[in-house]
Amino acid sequence: MNISATFPDFRSLLSDFLSVISPLPCLACAQEVRMPDSSLCLSCAVGLPFTDHFDHRQNLSFQRLNGRVEVDHVAAILYFTRSSVVQEMLHRFKYQGHEEVGQYFGWLGACLWQDAQWPKPDVVLPVPIHRKKMRRRGYNQSAVFGCAFSKKMQVSFDNQTLVKRQASESQTGKGREERVQNVRSVFEILHPQHITGKKVLLVDDVITTGATLESCILEITRFQPAGISVLLLAAAR
Questions:
Q1: Which residues touch 213 (CB under 8 Å, ≥6 apart)?
Q2: Looking at residue 212, what is its pLDDT?
Q3: Where are the alpha helices (DSSP H) in the chain?
Q4: 128 and 194: one domain?
Q5: Are 43 and 70 in contact (CB under 8 A)?
Q6: Are residues 104 and 179 in the same domain?
Q7: Do the Cβ atoms of 112 and 77 come closer than 8 Å?
Q8: How many other CB atoms are there within 10 angstroms of residue 94's CB atom?
Q9: 72 and 2 in one domain?
Q10: For the chain, does the N or the C end have fewer beta carbons within 10 angstroms?
Q11: Is the pLDDT higher at 17 or at 190?
């Protein structure tokens, strides 16, 4: 007898039971209770500032990179503004260990990518962080986001090929030119064979001026990928 086919998965039952007796908080605001079968509360589900990037190729994020580097598609899921629920959510994701934020939006990003009928990437590369920051933080938020996307899309995820070989100062508070100089030549491709001739998707949490992404894309371009696209959790405006 196939026991697993006869009885529901115990972990699933336990999860359902715990969600009833101890409802989970919304991933965005962390204040309200999530709706059934959702990771967001009703208020955030209808009130989060979702972009129109998947409907318009010539969007804000695409324009920030186009002309400086060659990109096929660029899209962010949410708009980011200071002192907003999106900023609070990203802070929890980036600094407080709430990896489930990146996992949910990586999954959602894949759904939006498929709905837009954009070309399926061959490999997903996260924007890397330096090993010192990785030890301090425990994980790379862009890798969490990108891994969830790749699982939903069933494509290769590679966090070993694009690396940050030297630490750079924080980009916070810097203008565009300062940001560009701050990240110039700090990224490196270790395994060119993993991207040559492949459709590459570069993923990151937030785009502001695009300087970090520009530096990564210039390094990737050196090894002749079939194309480069970018997916972001949020875009500053």
A1: 65, 69, 127, 202, 204, 207, 230
A2: 92
A3: 3-6, 10-21, 42-47, 60-65, 85-95, 99-115, 131-137, 141-153, 176-183, 211-221
A4: yes
A5: no
A6: yes
A7: yes
A8: 19
A9: no
A10: N
A11: 190
Same domain, 56 and 146: yes
Asked if 72 contacts 65 with a C-beta cutoff of 8 angstroms, the reply is no
89 and 9 inside one domain: no
* Buried b or exposed e, range 151-188, using 16+ CB within 10 angstroms: ebbebebbeebbbbeeebeeeeebeeeebbebbeebbe
| pLDDT at 22 (0 to 100) | 59
Q: What are phi and psi of 4, to 5 degrees?
A: -65, -25
Average pLDDT over residues 146-172: 86
Question: Do residues 126 and 146 lie in contact, with contact meaning Cβ atoms separated by under 8 Å?
Answer: yes
Residue with tokens 């969830």: 148
We report the CATH number of the domain holding residue 232 as 3.40.50.2020
Do 114 and 135 sit in the same domain of this protein?
yes
| Pair 88, 186 in one domain | yes
Token pair 């699982």 is found at 151
Crossing angle of the two packed helices 85-95 and 141-153, in degrees rounded to 10: 100
Q: How many domains does the chain have?
A: 2
pTM of the prediction? 0.83
Quick one: 125 and 74 in the same domain?
yes
Sign of the C-alpha dihedral computed for residues 182, 206, 99 and 219 taken in this order: negative
Higher-pLDDT residue of 134, 19: 134
Range of the domain at 219: 48-167+175-236
Report DSSP letters for 65-131, one per residue. HBTTB--S-EEEEEEE-TTSHHHHHHHHHHHS--HHHHHHHHHHHHHHHHHTTPPPPSEEEEPP--H
